[in-house]
Amino acid sequence: MSLFESITQSEPTKKMTMDEPVESLFSKTASKLVGKPINRIDGSLKVSGQAHYSAEIHLDNKAYGVLVGATIAKGQVENIDSSSLDGIPNIIKVVTDPKHFLRNSQQGGLKKAPKQGATDIFYHGQPIAVVIAETFEAATEGAKALKVSYKDETDQAALNFTKELSNAHAVDEKKGSDKNYVQGDPEQGLADAEVTLDRFYHTPSQNSSAMEPHVTLAHWEDDKLILYTANQMLASCKQQVMDALNLNKDQVQLIAHYVGGGFGSKLGIAPESIAAAIASKELGRPVLITMTRPQVMEATVRRSNTRQRIAIGCDKDGVIDTLIHDTVSSNLPGEAFFEPTALSTHYLYRGKNRRVNYEMVDMNQVLSGSMRAPGEAVGMIAVECAMDELASQLDIDPIELRRRNEPEKDPSKDIPFSSRQLIACMEQGAEQFGWSQRNAKPASQLEGDWWIGTGMAAAARGNQLQPSEARATLQIDKSKALGVKAVIETDMTDIGTGSYTVFSQVAADLLGLPIDHIEMKLGDSALPPASGSGGSWGAASAGSGVYLACEQLREMLAEKVGLYPDTIQLDNGQIKQVGKHDLTAVEAAKENGQAFADSTIDKISETIGVSFSENVLEEQSESEKYDFDNIESYALADVVASYDKQKISAKGQIKPGKNGKKYRQSSFGANFAEVAVHKVTGEIRVKRMTGAFAAGRILNHKTATSQCYGGMVFGIGSALMEEVIHDKRDGRLCNHDLAEYHVPVNADVPQLDVILVEEDDPYTNPMHIKGIGETAIAGAAAAIANAVYNAVGVRVYDFPITLDKLLYEMPE
Fold first, then answer.
1. Which helix (H) or strand (E) is 424 found in, with range?
2. What is the tens place of the pLDDT at every residue in 176-223?
3. In this structure, are residues 315 and 300 in contact, taking their beta carbons and an 8 Å threshold?
4. 517, 461 in Cβ contact below 8 A?
5. Which residues are marked as active site?
6. Taking the complete model, does pTM exceed 0.85, yes or no?
7. C-beta atoms surrounding 93 within 10 Å
8. Secondary structure of 688-745 in the HEC alphabet?
9. Cβ neighbours of residue 471 under 8 Å, at least 6 residues apart?
10. Residue 346 and residue 288: Cα distance in Å, rounded?
């Protein structure tokens, strides 16, 4: 570290910008702990109830709040009659703030607050007040009894997507995660093609339905606001709170040690957070607001419904020349987010004529935003169903059709892929699934009362890297077997994905410690800011911060004991020397200069009879205390104990760089499904699924496999049952709980087989990993839909595929 760095930095920091491919230290560590399928280190805490979620935090004198939502779809609040609660015991106050209450949730990663205001109503269920009481039960009773009068303009609301299509308008590309794109002449290419397919697909609104509802416990310490929340991205959510309440960074702290699922719905702050903060300030005591399940569904975020046009032109051999993907999605008036359905369409298959086009319809319905694999989850339903229909039209095996359209480069940007294992995923998945034994002819396999069919679909999810930081500290701890532990700190969250576990593996591997010698501190905005959990970038981004902090510690330890960074080995609490370092020209010159200086000092000492070791050179170099030529290893605890305060600390900082622009980065996969369709009722049962996925180096095979299971289960829901239904008359959400909004349960989920295809990608990050959890959902629903077609010969273009859409077209 330079003198300037030592003056300007409080602790050493290892910084990296991904401008070039980099080697990974994981191939050189002694334990090789990264990748092993170890159990979740927080698992015992969760199953024993010791992992406290935000609603379970106890603060003295806590009051309870229940939100009150609008009962109209459009209009204005004219009066809130607090006196209507006068006869209800334990009611404290009705709190409302027409200026600062949130109209809706915020999108993930943004720094500004979402739209605010509780007077103008834009959707049914919009929070307009909160009833505060001494008990949750009293607050609930008060919220139901509160009388509100409105200027009702529901008759002017946009409530029917189909009718509003004529009012579709251009999207704000600058604020979206994808852009409109035209290459060549797509319409002419389609007209000239030997074989064409042109279809419209409809996908419904969906809800994330995380197990934990949105919740905030707010309290103030003087002018500092502390929120125990259920947010996925604390750094950006903190900035949103600051903006919403006009506070500075020292006045806001968000804490979310454990989050019970998010799937995108908790990327940004939701209405309960600011309502709790305002109520707590007014009352001078902590306030807890836990949204009910109907409120979560009515007033947080949904995945937008879509209408997608997929048009493909190819030759008689199935080689694609033209690919068109046009999408219309919906959102609240004034919102910029649109469902980026064509994210993977840009690079998935070849074709010189291409078009991606987005439009949006303004609707008086709850905010639409990111839900697990935003874009690909529903976009690949359309693309992969179209590819299956094209394969059937051409009488080509669906895998072979995809193989014939494998691009050598990203066909939209003309840049190479950092790695691409789609064909390997299809081949390995097909072998394990038994694809070669399938009946290609639709409605050709009847087993008892059930038609049997198989289908497949490709999967792709773009890989991203976000700026992230972490701190790593080695310190003496005599309670540990090796006398030392590592403390890792970052505001990254664990939403059930295994962050506590995989980051502990990273630190333990790099620092040569057992997993129980790692103390992982997550979920507090007071810690170094990380990417947060979202976009399949959490492990890669926040994990790289942890990696670099640990690498900095390794380099500091190497300097301490007289080794080079590439010759130090940390192994089970011991520091060892491995290999031989090849001196660079600069290092060689430095060593030669030092040798000459030492020789000169010795000659002067002999001439004048003065020992410089006793005077000028009083302090022996630290590194000279360690003799690896004669001693095999030194205890890490002893070396750490020699530092001031018996600890050593460093930070790591990762940033995206040129690699993200020079190379197309993506995870790839393939989903295979077998279904049974009842010949009389049309009931669909998924019998088995196989998924093969390539996502760079795998940090933990058990947690990665679990993430793939979750994605495939999401695919079952998307294909067969999930659909948010709004009443087209008054905008009310009809199925606003888990009794009526159907998600797959154990009885719906068959045997799931997951293959993690080996891959190494040095362009992504220093760990060579990619996101995997959202890759598995991409294409999963399409594989099931294609299996349904193979079973009964019926193509469904309006999802989900419910039995009423099959009944009248079933084979005899």
1. helix 422-433
2. 999 999 999 999 999 999 999 999 999 999 999 999 999 999 999 999
3. no
4. no
5. 774
6. yes
7. 17
8. EEEEEEECECCCEHHHHHHHHHHHHHHHHHHHHCCCCCECCCCCCECCCCCCCCCCCC
9. 11, 488, 489, 490, 527, 528, 549, 649, 650, 651, 652
10. 45
